[in-house]
Amino acid sequence: MSSDKKSMARGMARMLSIISANGTTVPPLPASSVSSPFLGQSVIPLVNKLQDIFSQLGSASTIDLPQVAVVGSQSSGKSSVLEALVGRDFLPRGQDICTRRPLVLQLVQTVQKADESSELIEWGEFLHLPGRRFSDFSAIRKEIQLETDRELGSNKGISEKQLRLKIFSPHVLNMTMVDLPGITKVPVGDQPSDIEARVRSMILSYIKHETCIILAVSPANADLANSDALQMARIADPDGSRTIGVITKLDIMDRGTNARNFLLGNVVPLRLGYVGVVNRSQEDIATNRSISEALVYEENFFRSRPVYHSLSERCGVPQLAKKLNSILVQHIRAILPDLKARISTQIIMLQKELASYGEVTDSKSGQGALLLNIITKYSYGFQSIVDGKYEEWSTTELSGGARIHYIFQAIFVRSLEEVDPCEELSDEDIRIAIHNSTGPRNALFVPEVPFELLVRRQIARLLEPSLQCARFIYDELVKISRRCETLELERFPYLQRRIEEVVTSFLQEGLAPAETMISHLIEMEMDYINTSHPNFVGGNKAVDIALQELRGVKVPMSDIAKTKVYMISMLKRLPSSISGNSATGGSWGITSIFSSSEVRTSNSINRELAVNREYAEDVQGSAEHVFATIQLHEPPAVLRSPDAQTERETLEIAVTRLLLKSYYDIVRKIIQDAVPKAIMHFLVNHVKRELHSVFIRKLYRESLFEEMMQEKEDVAVNRKHCKEILWVLQQAAWFIVILFAVSLSRNH
What we know:
The chain is of the alpha/beta class and 748 residues long. The chain is 55% helix and 6% strand. An eight-stranded mixed sheet has the order 3-4-2-5-1-6-7-8, sandwiched between helices. Helix 10 packs across helix 23, helix 12 (401-417) packs antiparallel against helix 15 (463-483) and helix 17 runs antiparallel to helix 21. It is elongated, with a radius of gyration of 49 Å.
């Protein structure tokens, strides 16, 4: 052996000794095995060890290791092939289904030392009976039957639970095989009516994996094209790249026929080819004919038939063993990189999961440090999510602070912009409001009172959506608080519940002043109607726009600038009553538009009214002695204006609408700006700034440490289970390193 290979062998031996020191039993790996003609002498035992390691995980293992799955029908001779490969009788026999659960069979080649006798020891070991050796192979058969009956009963039921057997012998080549239940058509005993479908499903669960080599066993005295084993293999391995065909019972073919075409792949082609074998007959088994005698008979059979002479590498159990060993080794080398990557990925995931469970701490100082760390992470996480600095952002939906911004702009602001303050206000409503505001007198001008009354009602409508916006933000903060709950926090249910209570209470404390501020904002706008606001349309513009609309002239607001002469000329076309003005009245609107020189003065109006009163008195005095008493109808309980809407009222209504819309738009913009500011100040930013301080004040108390830091019951169980799986995978990772070393040494 070269110095490089010796050095590599010594390094591998050191790695194995380290693993053994960690509590893992590793079969000795002699340095000479690195240069052995069969790489399987060093590689396959290590894979077998990986099988043992992963068997500790049971169903928790998601790593598929290289193995050979033996598939065939009940009468195909499957068991005889396995026994021939082992060289011993050890499998249950019978007329009905014998393999009732998957049997994982690991063959380990033992090495004879120079000082040992020629009679080598062979034995078997079951995984469910660690440390116990079975040197009597009939006892192995009995234990298989007993363990199967313990699991399933004695009435032919089947199970997917594995039975693991390791056989040590100098007469075997290293490999791992899985003996699967034979495909059966008719249920017996307590087997379900769909037994065939169940068996096929079980077989497929093994052979579907790319790491599995399929050993498809078919009898030579049956139609190979309709072989159950080959049909199953074709489903899982359509191109035949990992299927080896085994043709059994060549010695009982019809006289004058042979299996040459089968073995050459002329009937059903397989990339890995076929091997033909001769099984022991039922009579041979009944008369206890040994496997060694059967192998001699097989060798003589092929020698005595010239048709098989040119196919010697495809005939006989020894050739099948060599082929399986060689293909399994090649398969192992091909999948090693992927196997290593999958194990490494699982180790990283488990390390993260184990870290999330944390370590058990019983001291007050340790509990206090852990509590402080948890609430600090929670507070920082809350702030990060709100500010958009969280590391685990979704790319499919808005979250955190982005949702808050969406509520402000896309929901609150847009909803207010879509509201028409006059939408639910009819002309009749405005007309009645104007009449009611004048009392017992007839209105000479557009009065101020109905405008203020109506605009206050519209401003009041802004309160509910503003408060609703605050509640929406509150709900979003509650959702954000739940996103801050880490796996570490979930360990402690009482602490988690207390944190939820503190956060909920603190958010409510922030919501109350925000709602109060919003209410004050609306009340402020309602208490003072500022008609001097620079953006308010004002009397002049309102009347001008109203006149243009009544005349059917549509002009933009920016083009409404008109001279007083033009406005007066427009008004003169209307009845004289419309353009009246009071020099001393308290009303605004039209009063503020015209001076005394541009319209009739109040003195002329008073003189006209005085003349009318004198005439009315004369008529009343002269008619007293002529006419009878006139009876009036009593006014109805609900009184509405009976008269048709006059042209003057039409103008008043139009002006009032314009004034309402103008002032409402001013207030709406103020509220759209002020409400989000109030919510951010009193609720969002306040919680961000003070949350950690509140946690310290309410939770960080030594008297509460023990109660709050009590773990959930399943956390300790999960931590232990996670450690066990991680330990197993770390062992597997070590063995993968060794496998790589062995594989590289073979290349060199």
